[in-house]
Amino acid sequence: MTLNEMIKEIMDTYDLSVPQFAKKTGLSPTTVRALLTPNWNPHYNTLFAIINAFNIPPAFFFDRELTADTFRLLIVYFSSAPEEQDLIRKTIKSLANESNLKS
């Protein structure tokens, strides 16, 4: 995924408009619109504002092999409360066990 696709995915996941995303991250709406532009390279402070606002590990922004679905799941997981993360892990483990039983 490209950086602008990742930003679009975050906005779509949380149903955020440009002004809402700007408010959550502390970025200006102009900067957010620039982030949505293909091949735009933001300053590292801009990325850290997003990372901090959504609790996304920085490495995700540099992994171009992530699919949109995987990135969306990771966004939800890392921005969830610890109890919710525990529930997500248990659900995934349960799904994996069911999948193994069917194999």
> What is the number of domains?
1
CA-based shape: elongated
Structural class: mainly alpha
In the CATH hierarchy, the third-tier topology is known as: 434 Repressor (Amino-terminal Domain)
Taking pLDDT < 50 over at least 5 consecutive residues as the criterion, the unreliable ranges are none
Instruction: Give a quick account of the main beta sheet: strands, pairing sense, barrel closure.
Output: none
Order of helices and strands: HHHHHH
CATH class descriptor name: Mainly Alpha
- Helical fraction equals 55-70%
Count of extended strands? 0
Which architecture per CATH? Orthogonal Bundle
Q: What distance lies between the first and last C-alpha atoms, to the nearest angstrom? A: 31 Å
Rg over CA atoms: 15 Å
Give the number of helices: 6
Question: What is the average of the pLDDT values?
Answer: 88
Strand content: under 5%
Question: Which quaternary structure do these chains form?
Answer: single chain
Secondary structure topology:
Elements: H1 3-13, H2 18-25, H3 29-35, H4 44-54, H5 68-78, H6 82-102
